[in-house]
């Protein structure tokens, strides 16, 4: 996985926003969203980030840019991109299996620069990511992302819906189309 292009639907503060993300996670990403007051574009790299809307461009604060980029890398597709790129080192630690109802989950804790420290639980039966727990930037609070409605995209099985329990971010991200390793050009 080198580059990605995905059509998404974001649910954020009661609004459903259609968008497109493309880029090379975790190095650089562009997200274009049809917002309620017109189009909004965000470009995030490891060094800088900015947002364009209504004819103006503004630089994002480093903490906001890092949070937005982490939101994308803390998806199953983002995790695959980070781990497959092998450009940054990461540490792994196995977690004890957990049981929720009839389902059993195997866990692993991963720490990487672009991800932060996350705990991931994989459904023991399907072998798909079911939940990710992270600490929100600037807080010590842990939040969960729930991965559901898995489908095949570009030869990979990914969650179609990621529900985030952090009230400061998008409440849900729905994938509608994913292209793996597309030519991005100067889009």
List the helices and strands and how they pair.
Blueprint: E1 4-12, E2 15-24, E3 28-35, E4 38-45, E5 49-53, E6 56-59, H1 62-73, H2 76-85, E7 90-100, E8 103-112, E9 116-123, E10 129-135, E11 142-153, E12 156-164, E13 172-180
Antiparallel strand pairs: 1-2, 1-13, 2-3, 3-4, 4-5, 5-6, 7-8, 8-9, 9-10, 10-11, 11-12, 12-13
Care to describe what's here?
- Strand 5 and strand 6 (about 55-60) form a beta hairpin.
- The chain is mainly beta and about 190 residues long.
- The model has no long low-confidence stretch (mean pLDDT about 85).
- It has helices at about 60-75, 75-85; strands at about 5-10, 15-25, 30-35, 40-45, 50-55, 55-60, 90-100, 105-110, 115-125, 130-135, 140-155, 155-165, 170-180.
- The longest helix has 12 residues, at about 60-75.
- It is built from 2 helices and 13 strands.
């Amino acid at each position: 996985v080198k580059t990605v292009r995905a059509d998404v639907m974001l649910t954020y503060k009661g609004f459903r926003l259609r968008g497109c993300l493309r880029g090379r996670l975790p190095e650089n990403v562009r997200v274009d969203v049809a917002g309620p007051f017109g189009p909004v574009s965000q470009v995030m790299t490891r060094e800088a980030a900015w947002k364009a809307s209504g004819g103006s461009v503004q630089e994002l604060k480093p903490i906001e840019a890092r949070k937005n980029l982490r939101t994308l890398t803390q998806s199953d597709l983002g995790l695959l991109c980070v781990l497959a790129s092998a450009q940054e080192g990461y540490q792994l630690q196995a977690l004890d299996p957990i049981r929720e109802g009839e389902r059993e989950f195997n866990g692993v804790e991963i720490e990487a620069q672009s991800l932060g420290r996350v705990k991931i639980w994989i459904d023991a039966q399907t072998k798909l990511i079911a939940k990710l727990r992270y600490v929100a930037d600037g807080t010590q609070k842990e939040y969960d992302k729930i991965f559901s409605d898995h489908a095949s995209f570009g030869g990979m099985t990914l969650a179609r819906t990621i529900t985030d329990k952090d009230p400061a971010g998008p409440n849900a991200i729905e994938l509608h189309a994913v292209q793996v390793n597309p030519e991005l050009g100067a889009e």
